[in-house]
Design brief:
- Pfam families: Aminotran_5.
- Its main location: cytoplasm.
- The chain is an alpha/beta fold and about 350 residues long.
- The chain folds into 2 domains: about 240 residues, 3-Layer(aba) Sandwich (Aspartate Aminotransferase, domain 2); about 100 residues, Aspartate Aminotransferase, domain 1 (Alpha-Beta Complex), CATH 3.90.1150.
- The strands form 4 sheets. The protein has a 7-stranded mixed β-sheet, with helices on both faces.
- The radius of gyration is 21 Å and the shape is globular.
- The relative contact order is 0.16.
- Bound molecules: pyridoxal-5'-phosphate.
- The site of pyridoxal-5'-phosphate has 11 residues, from helix 3.
C-alpha cells in the first residue's frame, strides 16, 4: 500500500486505518456466511446483530443513560434540520435556534419552513467567531425546544460548555464533534450527527434522544419522516444503509480501544493544542479565527496575512501531501479538520510544514 495522505478533509473525512483494514479483511466474506454484509437481508440475524451492537456501543459510551434510544436514519444531518421541526414543533408552539454559524443558520432556515422559530441568541455581530454564553441565550419557558450546533464546522467554533435549558428540551447538531470528548447526554433531549465526520462513512445519521421525544405521534406527516416509525421498528422500517452502519459499529469499537471518550479526548486535545500553539507562537504570521474559549477541537480555522499567501499555503501544502486544508469557500482562509481518526503524526507533520512555510514567507 502507498503512503496514507495527511488527510484534513472536513467531511467525508479520515477513518481509522485499523477500521479500514478490518473492513477489508471481511469485505468479501462476512463471518462465514458466503457473502458480504452488503449482500444479506437486513431482516436476518447476522445483519441485525451488527445493527443492535452499534446501538448498544453508543449507549455504552454514554454511560447507559436510562430513557434514551438510538436511531439510524438516512438523508444526513440536513434531513434532521427538517425532521426535528416536523416532529417536535407543533402549531402554536415556538422553537429557539442559537445562531452560531453556517450550520445553525441552515437548521433554522429549514425550521422556519415548518413552524414558528425565534433566534435564541446570535453571534453574527462577532462574525460567528465565538459561541454564545449561557446568559445570552433566551430560553422561552413554553418553547418546544432550543436548538444548538455543538461545533460549527465551517467557522471552527465549539461549545466548551453546553447551555442549561431547564425544562425546555435541548436539541443539538453534533455532526462534526460527536464522541470527540465525554458527553453528558442527560443535558439533551436529542442529539444528531451525520456519520461522515467522526463516526464512519456517509450514508447514516445517528439520532440519540429521550424516548418521549421520539415516540410523539405525528400523524400529520408522512410515515417515513416520523421518529415514532423508526423507534417502533428499531430503525428497520425500511432498508437501512447496512454497510455504513457496520462501519459505524467498527469505528465505535475503535473508540473503545482508544480508552473510550476520555481516551479520545486526551488525544484530540493534544492534537488541537499543538496546532493552536503553532498559530499563537508564529509571531502573527498565522492568526486563529475563533476566539479563546470557543476554539474547536475538531476544525482549526486560521488565516494568513493576505489571500495571496493563503493560496500559496493551500497549493504548497497539497504538493507536500496534505489534503483538505483550504477553508470552506463561504469564509475563505484555511482549516485543518482534525477529527478523532486523524493521527497525531499528521498534525505533527502539518506543524512542521507551517513552521517551514512561515520561515520562507515571513
Ligand atoms: C456536515 C454538517 C452538516 C451536514 O451534514 P449532511 O450529512 O451532509 O447533511 C450539518 N451540520 C454540521 C454541524 C455539519 O458539520
Amino acid at each position: 500500500m502507498g503512503k496514507r495522505a495527511y488527510n484534513f478533509n472536513a467531511g467525508p473525512a479520515a477513518l481509522p486505518l485499523e477500521v479500514l483494514e478490518r473492513a477489508q479483511a471481511e469485505f468479501v466474506e462476512f463471518q462465514g456466511t458466503g457473502m458480504s454484509i452488503m449482500e444479506m437481508s437486513h431482516r436476518g440475524a447476522v445483519y441485525e446483530s451488527v445493527h443492535n451492537e452499534a446501538q448498544e456501543r453508543i449507549l455504552k459510551l454514554l454511560g447507559q443513560p436510562s430513557g434514551y434510544k438510538t436511531l439510524f436514519l438516512q438523508g444526513g444531518a440536513s434531513t434532521q434540520f427538517a425532521m426535528i421541526p416536523m416532529n417536535l414543533l407543533a402549531a402554536g408552539r415556538q422553537a429557539g435556534y442559537v445562531m452560531s454559524g453556517s450550520w445553525a443558520s441552515k437548521a433554522a432556515k429549514e425550521a422556519k419552513l415548518i413552524g414558528d422559530v425565534y433566534a435564541a441568541a446570535s453571534t453574527e455581530g462577532d462574525k460567528f467567531t465565538r459561541m454564545p454564553a449561557q446568559d445570552e441565550i433566551e430560553i422561552r419557558e413554553d418553547a418546544a425546544y432550543v436548538h444548538i450546533t455543538s461545533n460549527e464546522t465551517i467557522e471552527g467554533v465549539q461549545f466548551a460548555q453546553y447551555p442549561d435549558t431547564g425544562s425546555v428540551p435541548l436539541v443539538a447538531d453534533l455532526s462534526s464533534d460527536i464522541f470527540c470528548r465525554p458527553l453528558e447526554i442527560e443535558k439533551f433531549g436529542m442529539i444528531y450527527a451525520g456519520a461522515q465526520k467522526n463516526l464512519g462513512p456517509s450514508g447514516v445519521t445517528v439520532v440519540i434522544a429521550k424516548e418521549e421525544l421520539l415516540s410523539a405521534e405525528a400523524k400529520h406527516i408522512p410515515t417515513v419522516f416520523r421518529y415514532s416509525t423508526h423507534l417502533s421498528n428499531n430503525s428497520l422500517y425500511n432498508t437501512p444503509p447496512s454497510f455504513s452502519i457496520y462501519m459505524v459499529n467498527e469505528t465505535l469499537r475503535w473508540i473503545e480501544e482508544q480508552g473510550g471518550l476520555e481516551g479520545v479526548e486526551a488525544k484530540n486535545r493534544a492534537k488541537a493544542n499543538l496546532l493552536y500553539d503553532t498559530i499563537d507562537n508564529s509571531g502573527g504570521f498565522y492568526s486563529g479565527v475563533a476566539q479563546a474559549g470557543s476554539r474547536s477541537l475538531m476544525n482549526v480555522t486560521f488565516r494568513l496575512g493576505s489571500e495571496e499567501l493563503e493560496k500559496a499555503f493551500a497549493k504548497e501544502s497539497e504538493q507536500q501531501g496534505f489534503v483538505g486544508l483550504k477553508g470552506h469557500r463561504s469564509v475563505g482562509g484555511l482549516r485543518a479538520s482534525i477529527y478523532n481518526a486523524v493521527p497525531h503524526e499528521s498534525v505533527a507533520a502539518l506543524v512542521d510544514f507551517m513552521g517551514d512555510f512561515a520561515k520562507r514567507n515571513g
